[in-house]
Design brief:
This protein is α/β, with parallel strands linked by helices. Helix content is about 40%, strand content about 20%.
Length: about 230
């Protein structure tokens, strides 16, 4: 039986009840919260592997909860839920670093399948390889990044994107390829999520983000990592 803990955060009682039932039937240990404050209280006392987080919550919304989570040293995986179907909301969730995004109404079985997929990626054994490029050190096992020996705070997806590029030095990836390989699903339409993450990585890692040394743009194609 699965040991993973999942926190379902949604202000609709029926959604909480149905998702909790399906997840428990699949072997997950589930707790529920009806708003952002309850979610943060639960996170103070329990370590969760994944949150199903509604974007639109009363009082403290899902975005605020997510941003609070990202300040933790080892934040849980997050799948965002929302009744909004606009592409802009999906892009916002992904740009913030969410692992996946599901629009209501949804099939509970689909949600369980997405939970399985995200947790499977998170549980994959990390490489023990440490990568060094000048003053930049990437430790895949510890999921840490150092510049001149000083730690750099990255979101889960910022680290995943950096690690993917750095382990394939010199290889050019299109935005669509990066969405498929880092976010693990095909993306049709606006690929600005990748662009935003690259920009944030440059701001955090490069001495001069406007003239990057490592995270290079290949115009009309995509991005590559130069050692």
């Amino acid at each position: 039986m699965s040991k993973e803990r999942v926190l379902v955060v949604d202000d609709e009682p029926m959604v909480r009840e149905v998702l909790a039932r399906y997840l428990e039937q699949d072997g997950y240990r589930v707790e529920v919260a009806s708003d952002g404050d309850q979610a943060l209280e639960a996170l103070q006392t329990t370590s969760f592997d994944l949150l199903l987080l509604d974007l639109m919550l009363p009082e403290r919304d899902g975005i605020e909860v997510f941003r609070t989570l990202q300040k933790r040293e080892d934040p849980p995986a997050v799948i965002m839920l929302t009744a909004k179907g606009e592409e802009a909301d999906r892009i916002l969730g992904l740009e913030l670093g969410a692992d996946d995004y599901i629009t209501k109404p949804f099939s509970p079985r689909e949600v369980v399948a997405r939970v399985r997929a995200v947790l499977r990626r998170a549980a994959a054994l990390p490489s023990s390889q440490e990568l060094e490029f000048g003053n930049l050190r990437i430790d895949a096992a510890r999921r840490t990044v150092l510049i001149d020996g000083r730690p750099v705070s990255l979101t889960r997806k910022e680290f995943d994107l950096l690690e993917h590029l750095a382990t394939h030095p010199g290889v050019v990836f299109s935005r669509t390829q990066l969405m498929e390989r880092v976010w693990d699903f095909a993306w049709i339409g606006d690929s600005s999520t990748v662009t935003v993450h690259i920009r944030r990585l440059r701001q955090k890692l490069e001495n001069d983000p406007s003239a990057p040394r490592h995270l290079m743009t290949v115009w009309g194609v995509g991005y590559k990592f130069e050692p």
